[in-house]
Amino acid sequence: xxxxxxxxxxxxxxxxxxxxxxxxxxxxxxxxxxxxxxxxxxxxxxxxxxxxxxxxxxxxxxxxxxxxxxxxxxxxxxxxxxxxxxxxxxxxxxxxxxxx
Length: 100
Prior knowledge:
The protein is mainly beta and 100 residues long. It has a domain at 21-86. The protein is 9% helix and 37% strand. It has one helix at 9-17, and strands at residues 21-23, 31-33, 42-45, 51-53, 56-65, 68-77, 80-83. A 3-stranded antiparallel beta sheet has the order 5-6-7, with no helix packed on it. The chain has a two-stranded antiparallel sheet with strand order 1-4. A two-stranded antiparallel ribbon has the order 2-3. The longest helix has 9 residues, at 9-17. It is globular, with a radius of gyration of 14 Å. The model is unreliable at 1-7 (pLDDT under 50). This is Peptidase.
């Protein structure tokens, strides 16, 4: 059985909506950066008790947060990154594809 990748249309849109969301640390307002590190520009601040999609992940600056110390950064939108140390993924490693 062949599997065909959907590249456009309503099925593609539905697949995009299927990206799992993960909660950020409770009662913490997490900084969203333009790249995988704290020296990148601040894009916005997530509200307390937010949840985020993880579109892809990449290594960057090592950060310590409520969920440990890691150099993994989660891309939650175009040019929007948060440290995985603040996102409860249930894993110490990658849970999404690496960003290209």
